[in-house]
Structures are given as C-alpha cells and as structure tokens.
Amino acid sequence: MTITRADIEAAHARIAPHVRRTPVLNQAGAFGHDGPVSLKLEFLQHAGSFKTRGAFNALLSQEVPSAGVAAASGGNHGAAVAYAAKQLGVKARIFVPEISSPAKIAVIRSHGAEVMIGGARYADAQDACDRYVAESGALRIHPFAAASTMIGQGTAALEWEQDGPALDTVLVAVGGGGLISGVASWWAGRVKVVGVEPEGSRALHAALEAGGPVDVEIDSVAADSLGAKNTGDLVYEVCREAVDHVALVTDAAIRDAQRMLWRDYRIASEPGGAAALAALISGAYKPRPGERVGVLLCGANVELVRLAEIAS
C-alpha cells in the first residue's frame, strides 16, 4: 500500500474545519542535544490527542450507516471518535479494555458516546467491537489499520512542515502504527522518520525484525495508548518502506520524559505522549551533532494523580 502526499493534502482540506492546527515549539540546545529541536504539540488537539485527525477523516470520507460508528480503543482513539461523532451528529459506541485509565473513559463519555468494557486488553476490546459491528451494521473506525485513519494522521506532518523549521529526523511514538504510517508517508524520501516504542510493547519493532506482522506481549506503563498486540499488514507495508528504524525505550525513560515535560514546560503528558521525547533524552536515539530533530508530542490524557506521583 502507498499513501501519497496528495492523499494527505486532500484529507487536510477535508478535516481542517473540524480540527485544531496545533502549534510548534522550537528549542535550541535542549533535551541533551546541541542542535535544534522542534516539538509538534499535538496533545493540544481536540479530545487530547492526534487521533482526532484520523477519526474525522474516516467519518467524512465514507458513508455512515444509521447504526452509527463503533471503535475499540485504549482511550485516545475512542475519545477522538466520540468527539468527531458528536460534532457530526453520529451515534458512537466505544469498546475499551479494563486497563484504560478513568481519565480517558471520562473524556469518551463527556462527548456522548456509549462506553462498553470489552475485556482485559486492547485485543479483547477489538474482538468485542468486531462482534458488535457484525451484529449491528455499525461502521467500524479502526484506530490504525485503515487507510483513512493513516492518511488523516499524516495531516499533522503536513502542518508541521508548513509551520516549523526544516528537519532532518522526526521521532514518533508507535502503538498500532497509524500515526507513524501517515507521518512517514508525508516525509518519505525527504526526512528520516524514526519510530519509538516501549520495550514492553514493540509491535512495529517486532514486525520489521520478523519481516511481517507478529503478535507481541504487552507490558508497559504506556500500554493504554501504545499497547497494540499486532500492527497488521497495512501498517507494516507502509512502515517497512518509509520508516528508518524503531528505537526502544524503557518505562523509566518514559516517566523521566513525563517528569521533564511537566517540570520545564508545564506540559501534562500521558506516558505514550512522552515516549518520543524519551528516546531523545535517554539516548535511545542519538542524533549527530547539529542534527535538526523533530519530536511529536501526541497525547495529554493523563491521570493527574499519577502525574503528580511521577513529578514529585
């Protein structure tokens, strides 16, 4: 599968009236790097994460049945689909796993969607969602393994290139891989795109290593947003061509990044949202001197009590 820049430009025109054009923060000599660092503040997006882009593109690029839409989510995708559905007057049912944070479930419900607990892990919630779709005829909005979702997420890179400085490398957190598929497709052949996954949740790393999608075990502090068991074929096909490599970070490094973002910038980031920065500050990704590095900060739906524990 190939996603083109024209696909992403068309999606941006489609969703622009409904999403925020999130700002870019440019730093020099920060995060242990002597060169410039550009942060795309996508956590400021509606519903708290980049996923609102893919949700709107999916809903606006296909016909929605009377049964509405359904989605399985660790939290952020569900919040995004719920928000988009509410704005467009569509009924939504969201299936979440038991590990989803109360903060994310509260965001989903605040947008009027029906929330169903679909099992212990994300894969269980996806199975429950698939059964509901088969029975009801609702439109399934997949969090990553769908072209409309990937293309929608790629609009973040389009804006970043227009609003920010020239970049050599971009660091992007990976759960199922929808975000990095879109971002890497936008910058293919022009900017190096590096995925970042927790050591305990490495679906894309494992797929690239194995030469195809494989199931992985999930055990990470970021599992509620970066906890996909398998990337699926579409993500793998895009990323094997467009992604340079995947860097792995520890849970401790992710917490350190959350702590730094709060301490120095007063940014309340969830673990998955801080993972890309964790690669830079921990040395999991080592830029060359003067390299122009971009870091996508992708999600802010964090339990404030938990953040207070980490920041103290």
Automatic annotation (TrEMBL):
Keywords: Lyase, Pyridoxal phosphate. Its cofactor is pyridoxal 5'-phosphate. InterPro entries: Ser/Thr_Dehydratase, TrpB-like_PALP, TrpB-like_PALP_sf. Pfam families: PALP (PF00291). Coiled coil: none annotated. Residues 16-299 form the Tryptophan synthase beta chain-like PALP domain. CDD domains: Thr-dehyd. This is Threonine/serine dehydratase. It comes from Microvirga splendida. The lineage of its organism: Bacteria, Pseudomonadati, Pseudomonadota, Alphaproteobacteria, Hyphomicrobiales.
